[in-house]
Inverse folding.
């Protein structure tokens, strides 16, 4: 199979472009992300002027600690949505991750072993979601049902008497560099790494191509089956890692602690301009979108506003952010046209004539 590369529409050789080591997709996504930053910047400036407490180091630390799990979990959700799916089990997996972390006293390896088992548990749940989708179950129904199974399992594990919040691990991952929590830095690093992978690697482009049109991607010989399991597995693992960020912020290991992560992750993805039907969007836009959600929550906390109004305030701000993003006229486009397939037609014809259907199914 020939390499999947995005054509250069700039009219210049790649090595003569600014940041020439980046693909057209990556360069375009950088430009798209900067327009969305206008909303959180305006909200932060207004909050800093009106609320003096918002400017305090403690408030900044609390804001960034809230931001970390939103970003980490939204990365996995965004990858799945870019692939044309959706994951409603992220909240339950985050809760399961916190419960497994609390089992450090009874798991070999202590807190470190519990962290590894937590991520593995999320990965397994994600793989099961992927297998269910491959079996023909709608992603919405599959992940919704899996959320119930995972949450019930977490509630059962939560009843183990020896379980307790992993304070040793929290002391390590909950450290801060000045007012910036270590997990907030980790969240940004993971976001940049995921963006670079999705926009620069062959596998990342397969994710976008399949999300844009899975049938055409399958006819071109892309490994659809393997990619499906991979994207849902990544979402599960990142959700479990997001559970660690929740524990570090709340000092609580509970099966229901990730309940708000579903709406937060989906809202972040939508505000980031990632099309819910898949194939179009930029992971870099997740950061400003997550900042919007985190800042709104921080303002509500500092003003003592009734928590029942939190959803209303979030919804209004999210709609405003989406409107501004659309008015900016910067919707992401596919880095290639369907009339210009990433695999040359002669190569495709040759591969279809030499490979058996069983071999192709095995690759997918």
């Amino acid at each position: 199979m020939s390499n999947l590369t995005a054509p250069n529409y700039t009219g210049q050789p790649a090595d003569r472009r600014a940041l020439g080591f980046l693909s057209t997709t990556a360069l375009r996504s950088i430009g798209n992300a900067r327009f969305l930053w206008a909303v959180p910047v305006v909200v932060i400036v207004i909050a800093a002027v009106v609320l003096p407490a918002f400017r305090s180091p403690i408030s900044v630390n609390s804001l960034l600690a809230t931001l970390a799990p939103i970003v980490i979990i939204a990365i996995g959700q965004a990858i799945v949505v870019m692939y044309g799916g959706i994951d409603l089990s992220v909240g339950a997996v985050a809760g399961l991750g916190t419960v497994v972390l609390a089992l450090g006293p009874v798991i070999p390896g202590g807190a470190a072993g519990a962290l590894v088992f937590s991520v593995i548990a999320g990965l397994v749940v994600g793989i099961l979601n992927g297998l269910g989708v491959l079996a023909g179950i709608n992603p919405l129904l599959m992940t919704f049902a899996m959320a119930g199974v995972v949450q019930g399992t977490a509630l059962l594990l939560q009843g183990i008497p020896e379980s307790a919040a992993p304070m040793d691990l929290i002391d390590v991952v909950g450290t801060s560099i000045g007012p910036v929590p270590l997990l907030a830095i980790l969240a940004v690093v993971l976001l940049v790494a995921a963006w670079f992978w999705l926009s620069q690697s062959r596998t990342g482009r397969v994710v976008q191509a399949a999300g844009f049109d899975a049938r055409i991607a399958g006819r071109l010989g892309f490994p659809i089956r393997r990619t499906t399991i991979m994207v849902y597995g990544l979402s599960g693992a990142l959700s479990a890692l997001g559970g660690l960020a929740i524990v570090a912020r709340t000092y609580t290991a509970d099966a229901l602690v990730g309940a708000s992560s579903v709406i937060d992750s989906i809202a972040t993805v939508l505000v980031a301009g990632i099309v819910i039907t898949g194939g179009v969007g930029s992971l870099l836009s997740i950061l400003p979108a997550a900042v919007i959600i985190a800042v709104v929550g921080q303002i509500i906390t500092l003003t003592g506003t009734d928590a029942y109004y939190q959803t209303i305030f979030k919804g209004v701000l999210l709609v405003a952010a989406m409107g501004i993003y659309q008015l900016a006229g910067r919707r992401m486009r596919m880095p290639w046209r369907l009339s210009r397939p990433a695999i040359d037609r002669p190569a495709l014809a040759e591969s279809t004539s030499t490979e058996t259907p069983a071999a192709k199914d095995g690759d997918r």
User: Anything to note?
Assistant: The beta strands are 176-177, 180-181. The longest strand covers residues 176-177. The two ends are 13 Å apart (CA to CA). Residues 224-250 form the longest helix (27 residues).
